[in-house]
Design goal:
alpha/beta, Rossmann fold, globular, six-stranded parallel sheet, 190 residues, 33% helix
Length: 190
């Protein structure tokens, strides 16, 4: 049986979480003013992954219009129809990019993401998107639980509640993975 070398470079993929108009377009249900600051850093990550041929996973929360959803017991209706469309330039493109539609905070919960990543022999996930204290934290925690190393690109995620974002990043660094500067995350994808 072949065993991976201890010095082997782990296969790395980029996971972009909820880069959809609901957050990024003013006037939409989940927009907050600070969200635009993550677009340029996420674009750098995406460009690096596309140049190197890394797998890119676009996880987008999508709910079915006109149907009940358990989230409505806690949150107002959101991410339905065109509200869940990708921000221009962040749509899946090419054979190395896939869409994972999610209905909860984590990109892993009730999706086939873990199975798919294991089949592609991915070991490390660079994670970026919104919101740090909700979907990013939940996805990082589930990535760790499924045996992946989550790496958060610090400048490529934020929240409308900065104190909760800071606490989430501290938890991720302490218990689940790594929080790194953007340049280091770009290098991991290059």
């Amino acid at each position: 049986m072949n065993h991976p070398s201890e010095n082997a470079v782990p296969a790395t993929a980029l996971l972009l979480v909820d880069v959809i108009v609901s957050f990024f377009e003013p006037g939409r249900a989940n927009h907050y003013p600070e969200v635009g600051a993550v677009l340029a850093p996420m674009r750098r990550l995406l460009e690096a992954a596309r140049r190197s041929g890394c797998l890119v996973v676009h996880a987008a929360e999508r709910h079915r219009a006109g149907f009940d959803d358990y989230e409505w017991r806690k949150l107002p209706r959101h991410h339905e129809g065109d509200d869940a469309a990708f921000v221009a330039g962040f749509e899946p493109a090419g054979p190395r990019e896939v869409l994972i539609a999610k209905r909860r905070f984590s990109a892993f919960f009730a999706t086939d993401l873990a199975l798919f990543l294991h089949e592609q022999r991915v070991q490390r996930l660079v994670i970026a998107g919104v919101k740090t204290n909700v979907c990013i934290r939940a996805s990082a925690q589930d990535a760790f639980a499924h045996g992946f190393e989550p790496v958060i690109a610090r400048e490529a995620t934020n929240s409308n509640r900065p104190h909760l974002a800071a606490a989430a990043l501290e938890d991720i660094e302490r218990y689940m993975g790594r929080v790194v500067p953007l340049d280091e995350a770009v290098a991991l994808l290059s």
